[in-house]
Design goal:
The chain is an alpha+beta fold. The strands form 2 sheets. Strands 1, 4, 6, 7, 11, 12 and 14 form a 7-stranded antiparallel beta sheet that branches. Strands 2, 3, 5, 8, 9, 10 and 13 form a 7-stranded mixed beta sheet that branches. The N terminus is likely disordered.
Length: about 220
C-alpha cells in the first residue's frame, strides 16, 4: 500500500508539470534555502518536489485549500541518509482559536504557533488518507501526536538511504488561509553531541562522587 502510494506520487510529480486546477500555493518560508518545484494541485491531491538540506528544518507555507476539504499531500524529497523525520502543522499566532496554545517551543517562528484542536488546521486525522515516508524502497513507521492542544505532529522513524516520498493529509476547516508545515529530518532534531572537554568534566565529577562515597563508608567502619 505505501509503496503503491509512493510510486503514484513520483509518477505524478514527473508528469504533471505546474498544472493546477485550484488556486493552491505552496512555497518555502523563512529563508531556509529550500525550493518547491512541479506543483500539481488537482482535485484533492497536492503533489510537488522539495529540494532542501536535511541538516536543517524547512517551513512550507500552504494557501488556498478549500474549506472543510481533506487533501492528500505527496512530496518528493531529495536523496539522503534518512534516520527519521517529523512534520508539524503551525498556524498564525494572530488568528482565532489560539486560547489553548501551550508555551511555544523555541523553534516556532515569530508570528506563528503550534496547532490546537480548535483552530481548524490538521493532518486530516480520521480521514483515512495516507501517512507515510518511503525512502530507498523501505517504509518508515509513523506515530501521530494530534489528540491534544499541544500540537499536531507526525513522527516517522526508520533508517534508509535514497530518494524519498513523504505523504500526509491536510485540512483547513475555514479554507483559504495561510499556514505552515515544518519538516525536520532526524538529524535536525538531534541533541548536540557534548564536546570532549565537557565529557572529561562529567567523567571527573562522577569519579569524585564515587571517591567521596567510599570515604564516607570508610569513616563509618573505621
Amino acid at each position: 500500500m505505501r509503496k503503491t502510494v509512493a510510486a503514484l506520487a513520483v509518477t505524478a510529480l514527473l508528469t504533471s508539470g505546474t498544472a493546477s486546477a485550484e488556486p493552491i500555493a505552496v512555497s518555502a518560508f523563512g529563508g531556509s534555502g529550500a525550493s518547491v518545484s512541479g506543483l500539481a494541485a488537482l482535485g484533492n491531491s497536492i503533489d510537488f518536489g522539495l529540494a532542501f538540506t536535511t541538516s536543517a528544518p524547512v517551513f512550507l507555507m500552504f494557501n488556498g485549500l478549500r474549506a472543510e476539504q481533506n487533501y492528500q499531500v505527496n512530496i518528493a524529497l531529495p536523496s539522503a541518509s534518512w534516520t527519521g523525520l517529523t512534520a508539524e502543522v503551525l498556524n498564525s499566532a494572530g488568528g482565532p482559536h489560539n486560547e489553548g496554545d501551550p508555551t511555544q517551543p523555541g523553534y516556532i517562528p515569530t508570528g506563528w504557533s503550534t496547532s490546537t484542536d480548535d483552530d481548524g488546521f490538521s493532518f486530516a486525522q480520521r480521514a483515512g488518507l495516507a501517512r507515510s515516508l518511503v525512502a530507498g524502497g523501505g517504509s518508515f513507521a509513523v506515530t501521530a501526536d494530534e489528540g491534544t492542544n499541544l500540537r499536531d505532529l507526525l513522527s516517522f522513524s526508520g533508517m534508509a538511504t535514497g530518494a524519498a516520498v513523504l505523504s500526509f493529509g491536510l485540512r483547513d476547516y475555514d479554507g483559504n488561509q495561510s499556514f505552515l508545515v515544518r519538516l525536520a529530518a532526524a538529524r535536525a532534531n538531534a541533541v548536540p553531541t557534548p564536546e570532549p572537554a565537557s565529557m572529561l568534566l562529567v567523567g571527573a565529577g562522577l569519579i569524585g562522587t564515587a571517591n567521596a562515597i567510599r570515604r564516607r563508608k570508610g569513616a563509618r567502619h573505621g
